[in-house]
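User: Could you write out the 3D structure of this protein bound to zinc ion? I've included everything you need below.
Assistant: Certainly. Input first, then the structure.
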Amino acid sequence: MCNEEKGADRRLFPMFYPAGLRNIFKYEQKCLERVYMRRVVWYAGKKYYRIVPFLVIGYMLVIFAAALAGITQAVSPTAMGRNLIVIDPGHGGYDPGAITSQGIYEKDINLAISKKVKTKLAESGMKAVLTREDDRDYAGGGSSRKTKKQTDLDYRISLVEGLNPEVLVSIHVNASAGGNNSGAEAFYQEGSDQGKALAECVQVELRKIPSMTKRVAKSGEFYLTRNTKVAAIIVELGYLSNPVDRRKLLQNSYQDQLANAIAAGIINYLAGLK
Ligand SMILES: [Zn+2]
């Protein structure tokens, strides 16, 4: 019985029993016993634990686990989008968006507030990426204004698709002919349930800003929201054509309030997905 076990053991781990060691042990010991997963060799009445095979197996397991972790990280671009938020500061570069006779450009307000939203989200442990960090466009060498605009938006859409975020929020400032309209409102793509939910979460928070008009989230047709698969909204933060809105939109404290509301809306939307 014991001899059979010893023979089986030597076949199993021949590499850990070099000839010299075998000669030293000579296998005078009558029995080989198993203790849990370890094997024990008795020699001259003393107990010897053969731990080398298990050290090697343990080492191989560590290497395997590390390799597996590396592979997981390498294939994570799609997983990267989890809880990632893309903020799109509307317009930029050649395209100022709405402008005023005082030389105020929508693109500058969009960028300033987008950066604040990113900061607010980061403070809550959320990762946000901006489609532009400075005054630029992605129109390339387009000839007509329409072609340039489409090229710019297509590039932003490709950026979003590549990042595969949880949400896309495009920040804008409105203008109207009469100058009477005021207040912030969120728009979602008609037919998009996730866009609607996100817009409503953001609108609820925007309405909490003191003296804010009590608008509701609305559906609309926008090239950006229509051509992205993720939950996407356009937020118009007020009217440059309205003197009161215009003054507030330039105030650092009001921009902070808007950014806080957008960040809170996004976080509440994401919390609802869990
Ligand atoms: Zn705009």
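Residues 181 and 188 are 20 Å apart (CA to CA).
User: Perfect, thank you.
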